[in-house]
Amino acid sequence: MTLRSRRLAAFALLASVQLLATPVLAAPAQAQPDQIEPRSAAWTKGLQLNQAALQQVVGRPPAANGPEVASDLAVLLWLQTYRTPEMEASAWLGLYRDPAAFSRALGVDMVKQIPTLSSGITAFIKPVDQVLGVLKATYRRQRPFRAHPQIRPCLPLEDTYSFPSGHSTWYRTAAELLADLVPERRDRLIAVGLHGGAARVMCGMHYPSDVEAGQRLGAEAARQIIQSEQWQAFRRDPAVQKDLQLLRSLAPERLPVLVR
User: Fold this and answer.
1) Which residues contact 187 (CB under 8 A, 6 or more apart)?
2) Three-state SS across 192-221?
3) C-alpha closest to that of 187 among 241, 255, 242, 125
4) CA distance linking residue 221 with residue 230, whole number of Å
5) Tens-digit pLDDT profile for residues 24-71
6) Cis peptide before 62 (omega within 30 of 0)
7) What pLDDT, in 10s, does the model give residues 92-151?
8) Number of C-alpha atoms within 13 angstroms, CB side, residue 10?
9) Residues with Cβ < 8 Å from 72, sequence gap 6 or more?
10) If you classify domain 3-254 with CATH, what class do you get?
11) What one-character-per-residue DSSP string does 145-188 give?
12) Rounded to whole angstroms, how far apart are CA atoms 28 and 220?
């Protein structure tokens, strides 16, 4: 199987998965987010990511006229031809980079029921976003719908650069961080993390190579965060432990269906 065929098969499979919307199991509400927000900056104080290592794992975007760009474009056009209205609607579920996107995978409403954990994920990803912005400005790769007029996006247009994908980076980082906290939900969390990037290809917002780079960036950033003193202290926070206790109280058979 050629590289183009393997990538097409992978993205077609991921994009065809239709995530269900967020309604989840009922559980008592916890502390309100406005009570937690002042603490989020303290959790990440002093956290420094190794930008050189992150840039190395991301690599460089494909050469403009190289074979990988041809492969990228072939995948985009194939998905554009065969995507369905249901697939497009599923892509909209991941439009906003919000921890609530993982609610169904965990079985609770993250914002309302485990707000400390939700706010912590957001706080720890902020330094990753800063590195992402530097990389985008360094490589300045145009979005596929800007470079190829035959690409018809099915999500709102964006003017930021394309490489690496911000959504792919965010979703993979969040999935890995949550999986570190709740390893028994890892498969469900990573499924959401992968879909958050693949949907960007299916809707013509990113080249496959943008999303692949974002996945690498997210995985490495999460690895660095998990090894940090700040993350370990966050894990030990009594409020985080309370959120985790709620998650672990849900029996696997009670978890809602994730995809159809």
Assistant:
1) none
2) HHHHHHHHHHHCCCCCHHHHHHHHHHHHHH
3) 255
4) 14
5) 443 444 444 455 555 677 899 999 999 999 999 999 999 888 888 999
6) no
7) 888 889 999 999 999 999 989 999 999 999 999 999 999 999 999 999 999 999 999 999
8) 18
9) 62, 144, 207, 208, 209
10) mainly alpha
11) HHH-TT---SS----S--SS-HHHHHHHHHHHHHHHH-GGGHHH
12) 35
Q: Say what the pTM is.
A: 0.89
- Average pLDDT of span 4-10: 56
- Angle of CA points 244, 249, 251, to nearest 5°: 125
CB 102 within 8 A of CB 187: no
Given a contact cutoff of 8 angstroms between Cβ atoms, the answer to whether 134 and 186 are in contact is no
CA distance 83 to 97: 22
Structure tokens at 2: 């050629």
**Where are the domains positioned within the chain?**
3-254
Q: Is 215 exposed, middle or buried (0-12, 13-18, 19+ CB in 10 A)?
A: buried
d(CA 63, CA 47): 34
Tokens, residue 230: 């700040």
User: What pLDDT is stored for residue 25 in this prediction?
Assistant: 41
The pLDDT, as a whole number, for residue 78 is 92
Using DSSP's 3-state secondary structure scheme, residue 114 falls into coil
- What tens digit of pLDDT does each residue of 182-221 get? 999 999 999 999 999 999 999 999 999 999 999 999 999 9
Contact status, residue 94 vs residue 168, Cβ threshold 8 Å: no
Question: Cα separation of 178 and 185, whole Å?
Answer: 9
pLDDT at 30: 47
Burial 51-87 (b: 16+ CB within 10 A, else e): eeebbeebeebbeeeeebbebbbebbbebbeebeeeb
In angstroms, rounded to a whole number, what is the distance separating the alpha carbons of residues 21 and 44? Answer: 31
Instruction: For residue 49, give the 3-state DSSP assignment.
Output: coil
